[in-house]
Amino acid sequence: MRSFVYGYSMKIRHLDLDHPVANPDHDALALPPIEYEVTHAFERSAIHLLSFGVLGLLTGLLIYLAYRLFLGGHTPSGFALIQQTVHDPLFWTAVAVGLVAQAVDGALGMAYGITSSSFLLAAGAPPAMASGATHLAEVFTTGVSGVSHLRLGNVHKKLFFSLLLPGVVGALVGVYILGHVDGAVLKPLVSAYLLVMGLYVFSKAFRRINARRSIQTRKVVPLAFAGGLMDTTGGGGWGPIVTTSLVGAGNDPRITIGSVNLAEFFLTVTVAASFLSILDQTVWVLVAGLALGGLVAAPFAALMTRHLPAKVLLMLVGGLIVSISTFNLYRAWTV
Fold first, then answer.
1. 149 to 8, 43, 56, 136: CA distances (angstroms)
2. Cα–Cα separations (whole angstroms), residue 206 to 201, 282, 312
3. Distance in angstroms between the alpha carbons of the first and the last residue of the chain
4. Per-position b or e across 14-26, b if 16+ CB within 10 A of its CB
């Protein structure tokens, strides 16, 4: 991009100049650095290709869902299904849950899954239904987030690929567990996990992290597997487990968040596709409600971010998740 001021051409260079010098021979001779677009041409083309792939997948999913709803030949028709959904109390419960969960996620950058799963479990949804609806609703939000981070240069390829495969494998193991373990047995365990995660989110308000710019990937594989497993079985936790662990170990927050968010999209798509084979049609009522609630939550997230410090938000959200999970545990033990 060029701008002309009084006849002179001024080129705006890549602003992120605190990375290690890509061309040390120029640096030694006190010459200007080679353009980032030149030194990273293949990387940029690969990133652009990946972003187009994500957008293409999202578009394909939208077309498929529209086809199934309006042209799939099922009875009742798509419009009748919409009318039934709007009159279903479960749908409006999911709308409220989606609004709160997306407002929390928009303000903190995490905790959508554990917030929505906690509320859905409290509303009586079985663990598989709560996790499945949450992941199905997250497909589009994680896709848009992943593409945004790609475009902004926030994705580190080595870290991303270190997260991707073990995270997906862990998530699939979690789907298997949810599909083969009795929900009545699993629900207290999931509630206990969410209680621990709530305490973890609450504790973040009182901890300082000094970040460094290097990317440490030695322990990423087991961390990603554990994050994918717990994210699926508990209905959320990929961000709080993986992102906070990596940033807490000193990795650069911007690169870590971008890479983890992009990997989360592929994990979410895999989990959502797996849940379709083990859940009934009721899940779509929850998904529609979560999606609608999430659509109107952005202004609330902006207000929360503007008027409440991050420490207060962490304490409120952590306390909320702890309270709901404690209630779920109490109800599971007394029934």
1. 33, 14, 17, 21
2. 10, 40, 10
3. 66
4. eeeeeeeeeeeee
Place of tokens 């849950």: 97
- Residues 223, 241 contacting (CB under 8 angstroms): yes
Q: Are 305 and 113 in contact (CB under 8 A)?
A: no
| Residue 44, phi then psi, degrees to nearest 5 | -65, -40
Nearest partner of 320 among 103, 48, 65, judged by Cα: 103
Distance CA 204, CA 244 (A): 9
Find all residues with CB under 8 Å of 210, minimum gap 6, and list them: 250
Return the SS3 of 8: strand
Strands 8-11 and 2-5: antiparallel
Q: Which two tokens stand for residue 327?
A: 């209630």
- Provide CB contacts within 8 A for 132, sequence distance 6+: 271, 272, 275, 278, 279, 283
Q: Give the up-direction half-sphere exposure of residue 232: CA atoms within 13 A in the CB hemisphere.
A: 28
CA separation for the pair 203, 208 (Å, rounded): 11
Question: Can you name the residues that pair with 3 across neighbouring β-strands?
Answer: 10
Taking every pair of Cα atoms in the chain, the longest distance, rounded to a whole number of angstroms, is 79
Position of tokens 């990317």?
Answer: 215
C-alpha 300/C-alpha 315 separation (Å) is: 17
Q: CA 45 to CA 77: how far, in whole Å? A: 44
Per residue in 3-62, pLDDT tens? 444 444 344 444 444 444 455 555 555 555 555 445 554 455 566 677 777 888 878 877
Please return the burial class of 185, using the count of CB atoms within 10 Å of its CB with bins 0-12, 13-18 and 19+. Answer: exposed
Q: Rounded mean pLDDT of 302-306?
A: 67
Q: Domain-by-domain residue ranges, the chain? A: 1-39, 43-334
Taking the mean position of all CA atoms in its chain, how far away is CA 310?
Answer: 19
pTM for the whole structure:
0.70
Torsion, Cα 309 315 318 321, to 10 degrees, reads: -100
Q: How far is CA 29 from the centre of its chain?
A: 45
Token pair of 168 as six digits:
């997906």
